Amino acid sequence: MALPLIVEQSVPGRRGYWLPPSDVPAANPAELPPQDQLRASPPSLPEVAEFDVVRHYTTLSQRNFSVDTHFYPLGSCTMKYNPKLNERVAALPGFAQLHPLQPAAQVQGLLALLYELEQLLCAITGMEAFTLQPAAGAQGELTGLKIIAAYHRSKRRKRPTILIPDSAHGTNPASAALSGFTVVQLRSGPDGLIDLKELQAKLSDDVAALMLTNPNTLGLFERQILEVTALLHAHDALVYMDGANMNALLGIARPGEMGVDLLQLNLHKTFSTPHGGGGPGAGPVGVTKALEPFLPVPRIRRVGRRFAWDERGAATIGRVHGFYGNVGVLVRAYAYIRTLGREGLARASRSAIINANYLRVTLREAFPVPFDRPCLHECVLTLKALKAQGLSAWDVAKRLLDYGFYAPTVYFPLIVEEALMIEPTETESKETLDRFVQAMRRIAEEATTDPELVRRAPHRMVVDRLDEVKAAREPNLRWVGSPAQSNARVLP
Questions:
Q1: Which of 235, 284, 286 is nearest to 260 (CA)?
Q2: CATH topology for 352-473?
Q3: 350-361: average pLDDT
Q4: Burial status of residue 402 (CB atoms within 10 A of its CB: 0-12, 13-18, 19 or more)
C-alpha cells in the first residue's frame, strides 16, 4: 500500500503521519518505516496555491536567456534554433521508446535512418565513411585521434606529435594531450591563417597529424588548405579537421576535396539541436577509405533490404560509446537535412556568412576588427581600445544583458586581445541584427561618456554581477540566512 503524501496529524503510535479518512483503508503497520525513522512532529510545509507555484516557476524561466527568447550569438558554439518539427520527429514512439538491447530485427526503421544519415553526411563532407557513436564534438576529436594513433601503429612506427594552429578550436590541444600525443603549436601568420613557413619548420617525421579548424576560430577560411594538406601527406602524416564550424561550408565546400583525412561534425550545433547547458550532443567522425578499417564498431551494414550490426573489424579502435550513440540528436539532424535538402543547406550557410559579414562591417567603426576582410560564419572584434577607460570585453558582455542580448563569446580566440566573437547564424533576421548593432554602438558611447555604468553592469538583471572567482571556489547554490550572505546581490 502506498504511504500517505500529506503529513499533518499524528496516528497513535505512528507520529507524523496523516490520519486518512474513514473510507480509506488504514496503512498496514508492517508497511510503515521503522519507528526511529519517523518524524517527531509534522514538517513545516507551506500551503501554496497551485497557480502561485506555476507563476513562480514561470517567472523564473522568463529570466533565462535562450534561443526561444533572445538573440544568442555565441561564437564557435552556435546556439541555433531547433525547429519544433524536429522535436516532434525525435519524440515519435518508434524512436523515443526503443530499448537499446532490442534485436536488430525489431529496430529496422531506426537502423535505416542511421544508415541513411551516414550516407548523407558522406555526401555533405566528401568523406568515405562515418561513425555516429561519439556523443559530443570533443569525443569526436578523441575518436579521431585514436584512429590516427591506430593508423600509425599499423605502419609500425611512432609518431608522437600533433601540430595544432593557434587559431584552432579550443578543445583540440586537450584532446590531443589526453590521447597521449605531444602538442606543438603553430603560430598564425599576419593574415590570421596558417603560416606555411611556420608549418614547414615544424613538420617532421615525428608528426602524426595536423589538427586544424577550417574556417578557423577567427571565422577565416584557410585559403592555402590544398598546400597545407599536401605538405602533411608528403610526410605520410594525416590531416584532421575540426568540423565545429561546418555551418559555413554546407553545400559550398567539402573537406574531403580539400585533402582532409578525417573530421568530426557537431550535429548538435550545425544541424539544429542547441546544446546550451552541456548537452545533448553528437560528434560523428568521417574518414577516408584508407582509415575506414579503424572506425569504431559496431557498424551498420545493409544486407539486401535489411540492416544489421557488424561487430567485425580487425583494426577497429573498439567502441567509443554505448549502443547507437546519442540517437535523439541523430534523428533531429536527419530531419533537418531531409527538410532543407542540398539547396536549403547551401542557402543556410550563405545566410550565416552574410549575417556575420553584416555585423563585421556595421560594428567595425565602434569596435575594430583585427583581421578586417570577408569572414565566413562568425566575426571577431577586439575591444582592447576600451582599456583606456579601464574597461574590458567582459564589461561589454555584462552590459549587453541590460539590452536584452546574451553576450557573444569573450576572450576567444586567444590570439586576439580582448576578443569578442560573434556568430549570428543564418536564423536571425536583419531587424534582430540591427537591434544588436544599436545596442553595441550605445555601449561604445557609454564607454566614453560614463565608463562606470559599463564597468558595473548588469543593472537590470535580478542578480547583480557575481564575484566570479569566489563563486567558482565557494559555490553557493542556495540562500543562507539572507541574500546578503550569497555571492550575488539581489536587486530590489
A1: 286
A2: Aspartate Aminotransferase, domain 1 (3.90.1150)
A3: 97
A4: middle
